Amino acid sequence: MDHAPATEPDAPSPRVAHLLDAARAAFVADGFDRVSIDGIARDAGVSKETIYRHFPDKQALFRAALDDRGNRFIAQTRALHRTGLHGAEALDALARAIMDAAVDGGLLSPLWLAAGLGTRMPDLALELQQAQAARMEPVRAAIEALARAQGVARTIGIDDALDFGSLAVEGSRLLMGFDPPPNGQRAALGARAAALFAEGVLAMPTPPASGHGTTIATVVQAEPAQTRPPHVRRLLEVAATHFLRDGYESASLGAIGAEAKVGRGTLYRHFRHKAGLFDAVLRDLAARQAGDAAPPVLPSGKQSPDDAVAAIQRYFAAATAQLTGRESIALHRAAISASRRDPALARAIHDAVRAPWIAPLARWVAESTGLADAMWLASQGIVLAMQGNRAIAAGHGSSGDPERHAARVTALFLHGLRG
């Protein structure tokens, strides 16, 4: 990937900046399809003619609103790089800046919107994901400078910056309905993510006594498929096709019922309303994903370094194959696009599909390191295996060599930036 130019992006005029803020807030709140130019004009207190004077159509305004927020993040990152911080202190500050930008500045907005657009507008969704990756170039440059100062000779690529950002925001958690970490905990969380990226789990320091740790919630899974009457099972399967293809808002209960050959009375008797059917469909799909998970067995007790590397690499290869597969990506996109309306459902999907992979890895980390936050470290390992949110936004898993991806993620997870 070509590196971004060193010049700062031009700031828009105050009038245009206000318009872009109003547009971005509307797009993030309601999604691309439900937002109108008329509505944005009302929110911004301007006329439609004023909007069209600057932007030819809704898509152009959409791109500009996201680019403006991204440009602010670029400027903040470059300013941080110029402060002269060194070593772990600089990496901690960089992780905190990414977290703050994600929580307070909408850094993840393009990925949330890409998830909602993925099926119907795949080219635009991919464009949003690629633009988001390009915005991480200043992060890559900062990591490269830190690596060189510490004697790390290997090339620092954009994937390293994206992995660092993914660890800082804990993958898809913010996109899938989890509450952001309180401001008072962000410094410790950022420092822990930076330490994992720099050192790897095998050299991680003991977390502070006040610590933190992500845990996998107890998941109430969907009713097992075999307990559903055949006509209800058929309804769920048809509804899954419609919801994953058209999204929650655009899917039609009438079309679902007609294709499944069930009446509205049957639908409402079992699921009460559209939201109830959507909830049942996504939980059912998540339960299937969890049931299909087949994590390779990780060794217990003492093992040689080579055996540990080989075992973890096999584990990550298998996790990546399932969790960034077509079915998983479609499920994640549906949950993310509905997370504003039903965050509890999105959280349940997040936990259900990851739990079979995180629990065995957490046991291995705990046995190998004795670290108290092994569950959190294991969940971060799965974040790396899933490529953060990149595969979900792009609509496909790694476009490169899967074995190479597994080897790179294994080296980073076990040994950090020097791996």
Walkthrough of the structure:
The chain is mainly α. It has 3 domains: 14-202, Tetracycline Repressor, domain 2, CATH 1.10.357.10; 225-288, Orthogonal Bundle (Tetracycline Repressor, domain 2); 295-418, no CATH class. It contains 20 helices and no strands. Helix 10 packs across helix 20 and helix 11 runs antiparallel to helix 12. The longest helix is centred in the C-terminal third of the chain and has 27 residues, at 343-369. The radius of gyration is 22 Å and the shape is flat. The two termini are 22 Å apart. Mean pLDDT is 84; it is low at 1-6 and 210-226.
SSE sequence, one letter per element: HHHHHHHHHHHHHHHHHHHH
Mean pLDDT: 84
Query: What is the highest CATH level, the class of the largest domain?
Result: Mainly Alpha
- Class from helix and strand fractions: mainly alpha
Task: Kindly state the percentage of residues in helix.
Answer: 55-70%
Contiguous uncertain segments of 5+ residues: 1-6, 210-226
Helix run count? 20
What does the radius of gyration come to? 22 Å
**Count of the domains:** 3
Biggest sheet overview: none
CATH homology superfamily of the largest domain: Tetracycline Repressor, domain 2
Corresponding CATH architecture of the largest domain: Orthogonal Bundle
Termini Cα gap:
22 Å
* Number of E-state strands: 0
What is the CATH fold-level name of the largest domain? Answer: Tetracycline Repressor, domain 2
Strand percentage lies at under 5%
Structural shape: flat
Name its key features.
419 residues, mainly alpha, 20 helices, Tetracycline Repressor, domain 2, flat, disordered N terminus, single chain, 3 domains
